[in-house]
Design goal:
66% of the residues lie in helices and 3% in strands. With 149 residues, it is mainly alpha-helical. A hairpin with an 8-residue loop joins strand 1 and strand 2.
């Protein structure tokens, strides 16, 4: 079995059907860097919350890269719905784990989470510095855009 494959074995006759997710460690650090960059791109471009993220993940991992089949992705999403926390985070960790082992899961999580964490940190750092008219204008713009939706 090659790195990152999900093994599905179908046996006929009296044998049982076996479908299992197999985690195989990545062949090297470069593969995990590639994984990080893929998730960083998704973290920078995926807006709309966990439900929307799952759509972006499906496009990236089922359609574009063919890392998972439709059935495997659907099973993975269904399984991740039972785990506490956002399903998209759980799916991202699982894909990272399958592609690169524990280090791949860490790189996937860091890549997807980093853009949001940096923006949150920048806003927290800048908030005390933007007191006055600028902050009031921003808050007013956010409130008025909320009513437009």
């Amino acid at each position: 079995m090659r790195e990152g494959e999900i093994k599905g074995i179908n046996m006929s006759g009296n044998r049982k059907q076996i479908n299992s997710l197999q985690t195989v460690a990545a062949s090297g650090f470069a593969e995990n860097i590639k994984l990080f960059l893929i998730f960083l791109y998704l973290g920078c471009t995926s807006f709309g919350g966990p439900a929307a993220h799952l759509g972006y993940f499906r496009q990236a991992f089922v359609e574009k890269r063919a890392w998972l089949s439709e059935a495997q992705y659907a099973s993975l999403v269904a399984m991740c719905q039972f785990i506490p926390g956002p399903a998209s985070s759980q799916v991202g960790l699982a894909v990272g784990l399958m592609r690169g082992g524990y280090l791949g899961a860490l790189f996937a999580w860091a890549g997807f989470t980093l853009p949001s964490a940096l923006l949150l940190g920048a806003f927290a750092w800048g908030l005390p510095r933007w007191q006055g008219e600028v902050l009031g204008g921003v808050v007013h713009g956010l409130k008025s855009s909320r009513w437009q939706l």
